[in-house]
Specification:
Blueprint (H helix, E strand, L loop, with lengths): L6 H10 L6 H19 L7 E2 L11 E3 L2 E3 L14 E4 L6 H9 L6 H11 L3 E2 L4 H16 L18 E13 L2 H10 L1 H13 E14 L5 E14 L3 H4 L2 H11 L1 H21 L31 H9 L7 H10 L13 H14 L9 H7 L2
Length: 378
């Protein structure tokens, strides 16, 4: 028997049972979004990229003297130190304000101290305000007579800082979730909301670190380097999944800036060490440094040969420190043809030395001995 439904009943049944063709599509979209959320929930961050896409290094471990423990395998190392170095951190710079006020991170000095000492490329000496104040306080106690005898806080024990290492940071924070958020808008509904939330959670933090090495005696820049690092976080995944997982990821995101900065400084320091292995001192041909330069200006005084060692010998009668290149330049100035000042002892240099020694009444050895240095420094 066939029962014929009235028009109102047919419309009610159609509303209660929509066409099945649209249901699989929506279920598929929801399933894809949930699968993506589940996949990302176990991945708090992507791998660290320092210099290359696959690098995962951060500053870690410890150092004591020339020994280190737990240092990154990616940190460049030296067989022996190149000199002493102190950290110069400009706390009035704009980048330092961001580091301290926005990211709530400590000064970079201690991070760099660890990297430098683990590398064994320099011996770190204290020049920070807090450290210098502590040393001054101890010496004041010694002078007051309150310290025990034999405490050895007398004068002449401080180690000079041969070089100064100055850091700088350039910050960048990119939102990497635009594509997923746009996809969520296209899908729509619950699935679209999940995809949009996933997109909004992706945040790429980048930092570029600059290091400058200055010779403290002359003020000459010895080396400069730049390093970079990037890290992508899914820190907002807790909004999708709820519970303790979100809190744990959020805490990790709060320290992501520090991890990126550490990697960027390691990258910059590594590149500096690589350049220092092939270091060649710069000079202005025929003048040394600071003698006037080779870009002449109308009406300016003519350039002159400079030499810190000669000036020291003139002031205190020192008999050492004059390099062969400086001696060759000085001989040429005095009219003795020593050839091009190149620091190499050749026939012309030996002949010029003998002629100079003869005119000054000293032993004609043809060598740059102590007596000849004194005469050349006058």
């Amino acid at each position: 028997m066939t029962t014929t439904l009235s028009a109102p009943l047919r419309r009610a049944r159609a509303a209660a049972n929509p066409p099945r063709s649209s249901t699989p599509l929506r279920l598929c979209a929801v399933s894809a979004a949930v699968a993506a959320a589940a996949l990302l929930s176990g991945c708090e961050t992507t791998n660290m990229r320092m210099g290359s896409a696959d690098a995962k290094t951060v500053a870690t471990g410890s150092a004591a003297g020339g020994a280190s423990t737990g240092a990154s395998d990616s940190l460049e190392r030296c067989e022996s130190p190149l000199g002493t170095v102190s950290l110069i951190e400009n706390q009035q710079a704009g980048w330092y304000t961001i580091l301290r006020d926005q990211y709530r991170l400590p000064p970079t000095a201690n991070l760099l101290r660890l990297l430098v000492q683990q590398s064994n490329c320099f011996v770190v000496v204290e020049r920070g305000a807090a450290g210098m104040n502590a040393m001054t306080r101890e010496r004041a106690l010694m002078q007051s007579g309150e310290m025990r005898q034999g405490s050895q806080f007398g004068q002449g024990q401080m180690v000079a800082s041969d070089y100064g290492l100055s850091p700088e940071i350039v910050f960048q924070n990119n939102n990497a979730g635009g594509a997923s958020a746009s996809l969520g808008g296209l899908v729509g509904g619950r699935a679209g909301g999940l995809l949009a939330a996933i997109g909004g959670s992706m945040n790429t933090k980048e930092a570029s670190a600059l290091l400058t090495l200055i010779d403290n005696r002359s003020g000459v820049q010895v080396a400069a380097s730049e390093g970079s690092a990037a890290k992508t976080d899914f820190g907002a995944m807790g909004q999708l999944l709820g519970g303790s997982g979100g809190a744990r990821m959020g805490g990790y995101s709060n320290t992501a800036e520090g991890k990126v900065i550490a990697a960027a400084f390691m990258d910059a320091f590594n590149q500096m060490v690589q350049s220092l292995r092939n270091y060649r001192a710069q000079t202005v041909k025929g003048q040394g440094l600071g003698g006037g330069g080779r870009l002449s200006v109308d009406g300016a005084a003519p350039p002159s040969q400079t030499s810190a060692a000669r000036a020291a010998a003139q002031s205190n009668g020192a008999t050492a420190g004059l390099s062969l290149r400086d001696a060759q330049a000085r001989l040429n100035e005095l009219g003795y043809n020593a050839g091009t000042p190149d620091g190499a002892m050749g026939g012309k240099t030996a002949s010029a030395l003998r002629a100079f020694q003869k005119d000054r009444g000293i032993a004609q050895s043809g060598r740059l001995d102590a007596a000849t240095m004194v005469e050349l420094s006058k």
